[in-house]
Known about the structure:
The complex is a heterotrimer of chains A (340), B (156) and C (464). With 340 residues, chain A is α+β, with helices and mostly antiparallel strands. Chain A folds into two domains: 2-14 and 183-334, Aldehyde Oxidoreductase, domain 4, CATH 3.30.365; 24-162, Aldehyde oxidase/xanthine dehydrogenase, molybdopterin binding domain (Aldehyde Oxidoreductase, domain 4), CATH 3.30.365. Helices cover 31% and strands 25% of the residues of chain A. In chain A, the strands form three sheets. In chain A, strands 1-9-10-11 form a four-stranded mixed β-sheet. Chain A has a four-stranded mixed β-sheet with strand order 4-3-2-8, covered by helices on one side. Chain B is 35% helix and 15% strand. The longest helix of chain B has 16 residues, at 139-154. Chain B is globular, with a radius of gyration of 15 Å. By secondary structure, chain C is an alpha+beta fold. Helices cover 29% and strands 23% of the residues of chain C. Chain C contains 14 helices and 17 strands. Chain C has a seven-stranded mixed β-sheet, with helices on both faces. In chain C, strands 7-17-16-15-8 form a five-stranded mixed β-sheet, sandwiched between helices. Chains in contact: A-B, A-C, B-C. At the A-C interface, strand 1, helix 1, strand 9, strand 10 and helix 4 of A face helix 2, strand 7, strand 8, strand 9 and helix 8 of C.
Amino acid sequence: MIRKGKGIGCMWYPIGFTVAANPSAATVKVNEDGTATLLTGTVETGQGSLTVLGQIAAEELGISTEDVHVVSADTDATPMDTGAIASRTTYVTGNAIKLAAEKAKEILFEVAAPMLNVKPSQLEAADRKVQVKGFPQRFLPIDEVALQAQFVQGQPPIGSASYNPPTVDMDPETGQGKPFSTYVYATQIAEVEVDDETGDVNVTYMAAAHDCGTAINPMLVEGQIQGGISMGIGFALQEEMLFDEKGVQINPNLTNYIMPTSLDMPDIDVDIVENFDPTGPFGAKGVGEPTAVPTAAAICNAIYDAVGVRITSLPATAEKVLALIKEKNEKDIKQLSPAE
Amino acid sequence: MDVELIINGEEKTASIPPETTLLKLLREEFYLTGAKTGCDVGDCGACTVLVDGEAVNSCLMLAGQLQGRSVETIEGLANLEDFHPLQKNFEDLGSLQCGFCGPGMILSAKQLLEENPEPTKQEIQDAIAGNLCRCTGYTKIVEAVADAAKEMREEP
Amino acid sequence: MVDKVKVKERESTLEELREVNDDLRLPSVPEKVSFPIDVVTPEARTQTPAVGQRASRPDGRMHGLGQTKYIDDMSFPGMIYAKIKRAGVAKARIKKIDLSEAEKMPGVMATLIGSEIPVNSFGPSYQDQPIIADKLIYHAGDPVAAVAATTEQLAADALEKIKIEYEQLEPIFDPIEAMKESAPEVHPGQGNIYSSKIIQKGDVDKGFKDSYRTYENTFSTQMVEHVPMEPHASIAEWDANGRVIIHSSLGRITLGRADIARTLDMPINRIRVVATVVGGNFGGKNEITTEPILALLSRKTGRPVKGIYTREDEFMSSTTRHPFIMDYKTGVSEEGKIISRKVRLVCDGGAYCSWSETTLGKACILSAGPYNIENLYVEAYAVYTNKTMTGAMRGFGAPQVCFAYESHMDDIARDLDIDPLQIRRINAFHEGSASPTGQVLQSVVVKDSLDVAADRFGWEEWQK
């Protein structure tokens, strides 16, 4: 018989390396038509990091994402970056890019200020314009300013900067310290159906509420969460590298190493928890890894809720769940029968 | 051995060793690298192409079996007029992340939509069950296929 | 001034060229692929402000059109292919490697063994991993030799001709067994426990005494592969100036370059690492794998050398997620407030350290969960075993400890007859909470995330 259950998994997760320096550097060049080119040493590994980093540069320069071209991942051409690891790209590389774009913007403001008869500090960049704060009717199109900067003033608007999250060493005996600059938080709640005759677990629904600070691109955040959940489902129910007694892996292929397919995926509702981290670029933190963290916990708690067995070793394969159900049933029967 | 076949509407010939798979033929003889080598044994679906309209794992098919048949790859899907609605909707929803599974995924979906213009969510999940994706959790892929189906019904 | 006549002439020439009879084409002429003349830019990409927009990815369009060029989609004139021979035994001493049969095969251009690598060790924390095993085998997926040949198939065939004599040594696979003093050492001369961490806050023993009830349980997790859909891939080309260009699926090019420079004993500026769009990483492509091997094979042959992992290589020889064994003991008040917690973590580090140091550290800090706990003691150990090395994988130990602390939490809630949502609310961090390491936390939204998820799920109303 199919039994339903619900379970919670709640977690916290840090952004960046543990104490160790993990800097990023970036260069932002504003071209003479007001578009920009961004140089970063990070690598696009599928998360959409380059899109997000482009959005951060665009926001700082008051232009659109489309106006920014991102050049990445060439050690001869792009600045140092610790890379796509530790959920650090949006936060660390993003901060470096924001600082670099700020420097390029300062040049634009210096050039625009006398043209608008104000001080540079009175200016802001928005909607592809350099405009006077509190008086947006007084503006210059950014392309005009960029052209003036480059070809009349001889000051190409370019900025380079780096960022490294501030940490404090951990005490070797007590572990006390500030290992990370910031953390994110999340809760996933799973609904499962367990067949108590076969032990088969089917995840039917997942509600996922994740904090990532400001979501620079909510669509990509959703994609990360949905993908993390699929990896979490594999971890919870299916995936395991198996070795023979000689230590040779017996399932080094996708025929026998089972990972989630489209058929294993539940309906997922994603909520991005409203938050703003003052240390992140535009309040952003990160989202990559944490999405895969609470899923297995939520599923295993839902299995307990459904059939009353506690999974203590992953993965919760049908065989394992069924064995636990049988064990529990025998125990229940013993408790019912009178003592011998 | 020689093989004559139609690839993306164009007649092609190639001289190849008999053990050449369709995947190798496409990638190495014709530089059509849209079909990917993910496992080379038919588990992952990254090499999916359409042969006479049917989605197949091209790593499992010998090029010799293709004599006189018609192959469609991802490169044949976009033309001067417009992107295929699947490609457009995959892009709009951010359905692909690393993108490695994308060409195979889109071709499996194309076969589905040609046979079933109004698929349910379950039918879409069934159609792409042979295409593994590690990044996306398939959620936005299924949504994009549903959106593309709707678009194709409205503007055939 | 544009000379219109000349432009027209040129266009007609191109037209003529396009009309060349297709049958006469060489088979290797790249396909002509047509794309829309007017590319429509999605609205979200054109808007300012840019932050918060659901801007589509520029690479997303390329992916859907099959236009993204991953490493395996690239080729260079004269390129040859490398394959790696793997040990197939978990622990052994290499007595003899005979490459002569392989080298005689037609199409085989070069071979490489560990002793030819200038500095044959690497690793992000400790340099305990050989590029190619030269003396000892530490796990069955260890590379023992490499072959470069004119086709992939020839290179694979040549691997079969390599003869290696091993002296079998006693392996150890269970991390708890490996911690014992009597256990055979994975790396001779070094203990099997290669990293340990402690976090201590308050007084756990007093905390347990003050508790209403205490609970204990042990949890364990398995070894998991990243399974990026694109296997590890690189192409190396050594040029006449002694510079090497490496196209690689690395997710961390700067540190990858430093490792390559170190193993090749070359100045960093002679190495250029170019990454394309990586076909999935998840932590598995953060370290070098075959890059130095391909570079040396390229130097030997003067050819660009491509090396693509098979799916089997990917499983046997890339990093994986650490199996953990986690002992939890927790004391709580009658209301469900956690008073004291003691945690012991053992992580099976496999044959090499890789990112175990970091994984252990993160797991240690996170193992208490997002909860306020006055009295906490966590001890954690990373242990060598003769299995595939474990390394960075999405979450660095966090999914393992989260499975443990959240399962444990539900057991406590059930025993105390408190709603699982409620017990988490009672204990959750709030703005300004002190973390297990004493850090004052900011922008904390644990309770918000619980409430938002519970509302969305319909936690209260939900029925079986």
